[in-house]
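[recover] target loaded
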């Protein structure tokens, strides 16, 4: 698998890609370990209308490539993630009752490290994993994610992003109601699909405000417990949205004793760039211990290839 960056790609933002001269997979790994988010790769002998076809190469792609040849990484791949020292503390965490806005700085850090933000009922004393908010999940929601972040708590945002780009009307009602109460009428345009710069934007927001009392009533009638309800806080999602929350809470998890290859299989199967490490005893809920990122996995495999072959 040879990689050669195209010279005309220098204008692509470095936050998302690295456009340097690469000749091997290991050089691609070094680029990711050096901070690249993804690589732009021209497909050799592939042309369309006189232009060379390009593709994105991500950390997931490289991990999947190594997984297909995992026998070459024995016995490292069979060792536990704890023994290999790839379990990092889960520092990117937010309490379910906190505002979703408070998670924005954490999301920026998660994007840089190819991970996500863990949602827990409370930050102290013990952290139980409720779900995760990932940059990729927010992207699937489109512009409505911005309105949801401005209006909802972190726990309620879990349920919203669980619907992807097609949240039910009940979920949109809850977001609109909270935006009106906070006088964020401009954010309503993101939910109604109106261009904020157009003259009809303000009229759409004002006309929608006439039904705010109806939305408030709908929200009160459909309230259910949020992930932080055990600590006395009340959520605002309806029973119909519970399915979305369950989908968002289905974070990929492993144990300290899980092997490196098992973590790779989990991550690639769920198209995730990380796996949460939890401790779960009989009769108790899973407690968040740390996180294993695919970057950590690639670093271990890179080190394995640098070792001299056994005699």
């Amino acid at each position: 698998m040879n990689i050669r960056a195209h010279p005309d790609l220098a204008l692509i933002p470095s936050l998302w890609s690295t456009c340097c001269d690469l000749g091997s997979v290991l050089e691609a790994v070094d680029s990711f370990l050096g901070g690249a988010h993804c690589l732009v790769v021209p497909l050799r002998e592939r042309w369309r209308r006189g232009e060379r076809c390009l593709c994105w190469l991500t950390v997931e792609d490289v991990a999947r490539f190594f997984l297909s040849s995992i026998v070459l990484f024995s016995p490292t791949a069979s060792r536990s993630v704890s023994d290999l020292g790839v379990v990092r503390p889960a520092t990117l965490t937010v309490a379910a009752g906190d505002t979703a806005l408070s998670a924005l700085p954490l999301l920026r850090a998660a994007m840089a490290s190819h991970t996500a933000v863990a949602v827990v009922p409370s930050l102290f004393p013990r952290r139980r994993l409720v779900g995760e908010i990932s940059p990729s999940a927010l992207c699937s929601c489109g512009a409505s994610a911005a309105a949801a972040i401005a209006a909802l708590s972190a726990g309620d945002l879990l349920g919203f992003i669980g619907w992807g780009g097609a949240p039910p009307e009940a979920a949109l009602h809850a977001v609109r109601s909270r935006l009106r109460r906070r006088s964020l009428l401009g954010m309503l345009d993101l939910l109604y699909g109106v261009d904020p710069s157009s003259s009809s934007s303000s009229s759409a927001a004002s006309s929608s405000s006439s039904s705010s009392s109806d939305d408030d009533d709908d929200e009160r009638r459909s309230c259910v417990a949020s992930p932080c309800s055990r600590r006395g806080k009340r959520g605002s999602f309806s029973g119909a949205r519970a399915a979305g929350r369950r989908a968002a809470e289905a974070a990929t998890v492993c144990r300290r004793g899980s092997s490196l290859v098992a973590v790779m299989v989990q991550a690639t199967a769920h198209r995730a760039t990380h796996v949460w490490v939890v401790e779960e005893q009989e009769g108790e809920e899973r407690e968040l211990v740390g996180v294993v990122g695919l970057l950590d996995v690639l670093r271990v495999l890179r080190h394995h290839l640098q070792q001299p072959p056994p005699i």
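[recover] notes: The chain has a mean pLDDT of 76.
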